[in-house]
């Protein structure tokens, strides 16, 4: 119960930051006010605030209160587990997804080394081409554990897989490990992306985990280098 209550406060504050109710460098309601609004303990409120601070959204100033952090705007934000759809909508970007490949595979030794899924497991392999403002600038090479995402279809993948998992299947996604590199484009990049003469792509390898620690997704996102921005907040 306590876990759901602090997440309720977390989502309430985050939504008010995203919609502009709580503005950058302004103070949010005090711990006592939030405690009374949600009828919870101060520790529950602090847990939500600490989580938002670790996300780089809030900063506590001793004796003054908790303030919304001022962010440097970016075109497309990578970090956390924000989906392409969520990031595009948040940044008011015109976006589109197409799917040239949607297939079922059995993990062999080669796929095991690439994805870390156990040999013999059944997985979905999906290639999604992401358009932003009518330019194909991102290629997502997705691998999902089939038993976790059972019921996934191409039409769902064109919209939002995470929305399907969280809202339709009630699956709790814990987080992801990301590995970032910059490399020359491969043949798939040349085939599917509007490279516009760019001779490098930024590659984000993403290992995503459920609340119970299960690896359920491996994705390689190939970004046209001039459209790639990585933003992260490091807390000391």
What this model shows, in words?
The chain folds into 2 domains: about 1-70, Arc Repressor Mutant, subunit A (Orthogonal Bundle), CATH 1.10.10.10; about 85-225, Chorismate lyase-like (Chorismate lyase). It is of the alpha+beta class. The model is unreliable at about 75 (pLDDT under 50). The protein is built from 8 helices and 8 strands; from the N terminus they run αααββαβαββααβαββ. It has helices at about 1-20, 30-40, 40-55, 85-90, 110-115, 155-160, 160-170, 185-190; strands spanning about 60, 65-70, 95-105, 120-130, 135-145, 175-185, 200-210, 215-225. The chain is globular.
Work out the number of β strands. Answer: 8
Q: How are helices and strands ordered from N to C?
A: HHHEEHEHEEHHEHEE
What is the number of helical segments per DSSP (H or I, 4+ residues)? 8
Total of domains:
2
Q: Report strand order across the widest sheet.
A: 3-4-5-8-7-6
Q: Which range does the strand content fall in?
A: 25-35%
CATH class group of the largest domain:
Alpha Beta
Rg of Cα set: 20 Å
Based on Cα principal axes, name the global outline: globular
Please identify which CATH superfamily of the largest domain we are dealing with: Chorismate lyase-like
End-to-end CA span: 30 Å
Classify the helix fraction into a percent range.
25-40%
Summed over residues and divided by their number, the pLDDT gives a mean of 88
Uncertain stretches: 73-77
Structural class comes to alpha+beta
The appropriate CATH architecture of the largest domain is 3-Layer(aba) Sandwich
Protein name: Trehalose operon repressor
Keywords: DNA-binding, Repressor, Transcription, Transcription regulation
Domain HTH gntR-type: 3-71
GO molecular function: DNA binding; DNA-binding transcription factor activity
